[in-house]
Amino acid sequence: MKKYFTLATLFLLLFVSCKKSNSIQPEEIAPTYFPLQAGLRYNYIFTISYSLPFMKPNPISGTRAMSYGDEVKKSGTNYFQQTDTTVDGSGTNVTTSFIRKTNYGVYVFVNSDSVLFPLPDSIKKDVTFDKELALVTFPLEKNKSWMVFQMSVLSSLLIEFSAICKGLDSVDYQLSDSNMRDEAQKVDYTLTMFKPEVGIHRNYTVTVWFVKNIGIVKMEGSDEILPLFSGGNFPFTISTNKGFHVQSLVKFTK
User: Which of 33, 160, 231, 233 could in theory staple to 95 by disulfide, Cβ–Cβ 3.0 to 4.6 A?
Assistant: First the structure.
C-alpha cells in the first residue's frame, strides 16, 4: 500500500508540475498590441474639426511626438516615463505621464493634484478615484469590456470611463511615407461625466486602433478626452465646441 501511495503521489506531483510549466499568462496568449519599453518613439499627425463655424482656425492641424524614457518610481510602483510634444498653430505643448505594463494590462498613473485641481475646494475631501487608468486589459478580444477609471464624490458618480473591444478591423495609416493597411484591434472608449447637482451628464467617445507589435496607429473622437491618451487631464466642463479629433501614426522607431 505504501508503494502504491508513493507512486501515485509521484505521478500527481509530475502532473501538477507539467501543468504549471505549460500555463500561459494573458499577455502571452494574445499578440503584443501595446509594446512598451524605453526608447520607443511614435510620431503622429492630427486634425481637429469643430462643429461651430466661428471657431478659427477650423480645422486645426498639428503633430504629436511621443516617446518612452527610463523607468521611474511613483507611489512605490515602477512606471516608464512618457513624454508627449504637441505642435499646432497655437504653439508647442510638452506633457509628461507615467505608464506601466503587466501580464494583465497597461496602466497609466493618475496625478491626484491635476485631477483635484479643477474641483471646488468644498468637495475635494469627499472625492474618491482610481489611482490608475486601465488603458488596456489583456487579452484584447471581441466584446471584452472593462472599467478604465471611476471618480465619485460621496455616493454620487462624477466620472465613469469604460472601454469595449470591438474585435479585429482593417485600419489605414502611413508609416515612413508608405501607405499601410493592417489588421487591428478596435477599442471604443466612453467617458461619461455626471453633474449631480443639476442632473446633467455628458458622453465623450474615442475609438482607438491597436496594431500588433506597433501599438496605437490611429485614434479618433472627442477632442475633450482624446488628450487622456497623451498625458492630458480630465474634462470637468461641458463644452459646446464639439471638437472631433483624428490622429494617425506616420513614424514608429524602435
Answer: 231
15: helix, coil or strand?
helix
Position 133 in a domain:
yes
pLDDT tens digit string along 205-252?
999 999 999 999 999 999 878 777 765 556 555 555 678 999 999 999
User: At residue 200, what are phi and psi to the nearest 5 degrees?
Assistant: -110, 140
DSSP states of 48-88 as a string? Answer: EEESSTT-SSSSEEEEEEEEEEEEEEETTEEEEEEEEEEEE
Answer whether residue 93 is part of any domain: yes
CA distance 254 to 248: 18
Q: Confirm whether 20 is domain-assigned.
A: no
Q: Which domain holds residue 66?
A: 30-253
Residue with the three cell numbers 453633474:
195
> Whose CA is closest to 136, among 65, 205, 186, 71?
186
Query: Can you tell me the distance from the alpha carbon of 207 to that of 198, in angstroms, rounded to the nearest whole number?
Result: 29
- Cell 467617445 sits on residue: 205
pTM: 0.82
- Residue type at 35 in one-letter notation: P
Report the number of distinct structural domains present in the chain: 1
Distance CA 226, CA 7 (A): 61
Beta carbons within 10 angstroms of residue 166's beta carbon: 14
Q: What CATH code is carried by the domain that includes residue 138?
A: 2.40.360
